[in-house]
Amino acid sequence: MTKSATDVMHEIILSAVTESVEALKSASKGMPNTLLRDINAIHPNAAFADLPRELQATISTSVRAAFNRLLKEGYSVSQGQPAPARPPSAASPAPGNRRPPRSDGPRRDGQRPGPRPPRKPKPAGPNKR
């Protein structure tokens, strides 16, 4: 029975995370403060080069193993070529088939065409002077 792509990816990610935690532990050489510092250095804006060498090597190995496993499971993996260009969709008009610009209504800058109509006077209320 073949596994779904979701199941395969779950196994790959779990394996990569487990191997990465082990790499962080080995990079800290058993020092809890060093391990904590390395873990705190990982954040959404961290670059690959900012990670400890052991973790970089583990991530590279995990990525290669993930691609090989996906290929072995029968999934298609690109070999680095860009995706083929899509033909333009029918929903968007071709560059030469656009509508002419409207002659009435607001412009892009928010101004209406032509002179501005005069303001209507406001009725004076009992508290107004």
What are the SSEs and their pairings?
Blueprint: H1 5-28, H2 32-40, H3 53-72
Total strands: 0
Order of helices and strands: HHH
**N-end to C-end Cα span:** 86 Å
Contiguous helical run count:
3
Structural class: mainly alpha
Radius of gyration: 31 Å
| Strand residue content | under 5%
> What share of residues is helical?
40-55%
Largest sheet: none
> What kind of oligomer do you see?
single chain
Stretches where pLDDT is under 50 for at least 5 consecutive residues are none
Query: What is the global morphology?
Result: elongated
Give the integer mean of the pLDDT values: 77
Account of the protein in words:
The protein is mainly α and 129 residues long. It has a domain of 68 residues. The chain is built from three helices and no strands. The protein is elongated, with a radius of gyration of 31 Å. The model has no long low-confidence stretch (mean pLDDT 77).
Summed up:
It contains 3 helices and no strands.
Keywords:
129 residues, single chain, mainly alpha
